[in-house]
Design goal:
Blueprint lengths: L9 E4 L2 E8 L7 E9 L4 E3 L7 E9 L1 E4 L5 E4 L4 E4 L6 E4 L5 E8 L2 H4 L10
Antiparallel strand pairs: 1-2, 2-3, 3-10, 4-9, 5-8, 5-10, 6-7, 6-9
Amino acid sequence: MIVTNAHGLNRIADDRAWRCLARRGMLHSECEAFDYLRLPPGATRDGRGREGVEEVWFVLSGAGRFFDEADHSVPLQPGDLVLWSGGSGGSLRSSATDSLELLAFAVLPAAVTEQLPVRSPVA
């Protein structure tokens, strides 16, 4: 699938931006989503609503922190990669003075993908 009209796939509010780059079967894989996210200074994105989805977050620019369920944190800077295990809590937070821009790739857990029909590109 090629998306030529991005209307409805973008969300921008309060200087937060989210853009769906690919969704589920579009990549002929068990991809849940491939997204772009921008958090303005001091903003937070939590992991609620993503139960069982495995995620990888790549920091493009800015500064922030990743907080786990126990509220331990690690700093984030451009080039860092966050592996967010399915079912775990946590949050991403931009610094008080800098926006945080990330790319996210999410895949379904094996328990789900094993139940799905095989998907392959059509020649």
